[in-house]
Queue: 2 jobs
Job 1
Amino acid sequence: MFGLGAKPTPSRTRNVVIPARIKKTYYQHNDHVQVTAKSFAYVLGCKTQLLEGISRLLDSLGIGYVISDGNLLEYTRNSFIHHDDDIDIRMDIRGLSKWREYCSNPSNRVNHKYNLRFDDRFTDMQQQEYNGIQCRLIEFSDKHGIAQPDIDVHMDLVFNTVGMNDFWKDYDLDYDKVRRIRYLGVATCAPSEEDSIRLLSQGYGDDFLTPNRPWLGPPLCPVGLRPAG
């Protein structure tokens, strides 16, 4: 397995061995699709391209951001969470006015420069401030014949302060101390080590470095518990 700082390539992803404990595991948001070497190569490629697009966009807008939740957990462990099939980004609320200005132009909703297509909350800032927004690739860039199964890989883009919310919680960190890192071979940002440990402990328990059982689909996931991987 290659380190998560390295850029995934077809040769590397084809050589990824799915551990025995992962077999018969399904993706968290695509629970009709089993984790296999082929499906994982596609999911990994989509996540990498989404992360690259949003990192470049937010950098260009001067908006602070960090990878969060399962992505931050994966980066901290330096090992894949195979069922994790999305990208989670938390933006600095101090960049709200810059993001509002970007979203005020409807033509930015489909951004070909960064290969990102945002959902219909794009011009609804009230919804975004409360529940974030999702985006997907306009087109999966594939020069190597990676199979493209029926998988919907998305990115959640949420401000770090959301107020009263049944799903998203405030993500309390110091954006002035974020780290510039490489995750999936992409130059992006993560909370400081101190903030990362605190946030991951709050989200997944003090033993967050120890992998949990694989994601086996909704029937086996107790209501109200968020799978840690």
Note: DSSP finds six helices and eight strands in the chain.
Job 2
Amino acid sequence: MICSNCSKEIRDTAKVCGYCGHRFPSPPAKCPDCEKDVRKGAQVCGYCGYKFEVAAPVTAPAPREKMQSPELPPEPLITSEPEPVPAVQVGPKSVPSHEEEKSPESPPEPESAPKPKAKPAKIEADVHSRSEAKASKSAQKSLIWVWVLVALIAIAGVFMLGQTRGWFAQEAFAGAIGSWETRDSGDNSNQTLTIRKTLQGEYKLDFHDDFATICEGNAASATMTGTTSTDTLLTRMEIQCELSVNQIDNYPDEYFNVRLTYNPANDTLKDSYGDIWTRQ
């Protein structure tokens, strides 16, 4: 079958053209004029020439035109000139003699940029007081830490000094730490003695005699050490003469064993030779 719209060949049983979309009406089974049977899809009766009704081809709808707004008529041009207004003659205005002529107006000065608004005094005072409070707090903290450090250093110094001088010792002889002096009852020489205590708990004694008989009347010195838990210290004297040879062989060995006893009641020392020592 040939499409009556686009003249393309299509199937005989097609109801719509696949090329242009034309729809075909279903012909009657018989011709309404001669009542003869006709084939399906026929457009004209082959017996009597009767033409069957054919549906109009389907066409795409035309695009809609945009509606244009109605144009307003142009305003009429005024060709006639306005009538002149009669001029009114005004006489010169009399100026009083006591009035001065006005000077021409000067052009206006350019406006300056607006100045920034200053903060209220209350806000500035509040900020200043807060900064001062913070600064004072930090200064107080720093001062506290300085005092703590000074106190620790002082405590450590006192402890070390007390250990060397026997301030914290339990034995009674610790009170004898210091410098002492006496006169030898035998030759009336001046003798000095310095007692100190080490951190290990040992006592060290430095002895000096300005006229030692054992050194033929020359000066002598000795260093002694010892430990004790009572008021008496037992030690041995090793005498060194400054200008002569020691005469140790002329003295018994017990002569060099020294016993020192501290009396806290009157703060004195007594040696094994019977001499009494007082503080310098």
Note: Strands lie at 178-183, 190-197, 203-212, 218-226, 232-236, 239-241, 257-263, 268-270, 276-279.
